[in-house]
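Students often ask why inverse folding is considered easier than folding. One informal answer: many sequences map to the same fold, so there is more than one right answer. In these notes we will look at a single instance of the problem. The structure comes first.
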């Protein structure tokens, strides 16, 4: 399986204004604005996406997953998956074809598992290219929504808590490589949202 980001999130889970209010930072200082924004970006990156601690997406974003063939069921990473944009494959002649959406359906099985499975009486295409390593490509949208307010409040509070910790201890921290010990309640806030198979 190979994952590639197609469309990044349009926003971050917390805004600059609410973060500065949380930190009680002077709103008129451009240098502080830049510092806080860099912290928002860095800390969100430690949680979000396939390499983040959560193993899930926060703000809506589009990903492409590549597979060598069609399995019986396609398990999608990065919950919460909102929709399938397309399922494409490279045929034996090297042409890219799109699987008709009437062939498959999106099934949410539990809190983290999302599957694409065939509808009754349907089959996946069989004329795949044998020379293309990732013949099957699934494009999907994942995330809680397009707005910061769509992200569960515990996760937003966790991000703000992490930012506050980094802000208050910045002399000992490299913002691009945050490794300092966090308050215990940070882990309790994010624990219910972790997808353990991706961590």
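Output (designed amino acids):
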């Amino acid at each position: 399986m190979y994952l590639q980001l197609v469309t990044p999130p349009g926003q971050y889970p917390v805004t600059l204004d609410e973060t500065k209010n949380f930190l009680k930072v002077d709103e008129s200082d451009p240098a502080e604005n830049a510092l806080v924004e860099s912290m928002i970006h860095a800390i969100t990156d430690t949680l979000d996406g396939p390499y983040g601690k959560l193993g899930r997406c926060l703000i809506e974003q589009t990903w492409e997953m590549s597979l060598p063939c069609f399995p019986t069921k396609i398990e999608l990473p990065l919950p919460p998956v909102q929709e399938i944009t397309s399922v494409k494959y490279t045929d034996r002649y090297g042409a890219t074809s799109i699987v008709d959406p009437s062939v498959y359906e999106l099934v949410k099985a539990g809190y983290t598992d999302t599957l694409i499975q065939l509808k009754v009486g349907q089959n996946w295409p069989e004329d795949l290219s044998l020379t293309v390593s990732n013949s099957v490509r699934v494009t999907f949208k994942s995330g809680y929504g397009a707005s910061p307010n769509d992200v569960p409040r515990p996760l937003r509070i966790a991000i703000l808590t992490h930012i506050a910790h980094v802000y208050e201890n910045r002399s000992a921290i490299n913002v691009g490589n945050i490794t300092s010990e966090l308050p215990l309640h940070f882990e309790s806030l994010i624990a219910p949202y972790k997808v353990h198979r991706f961590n």
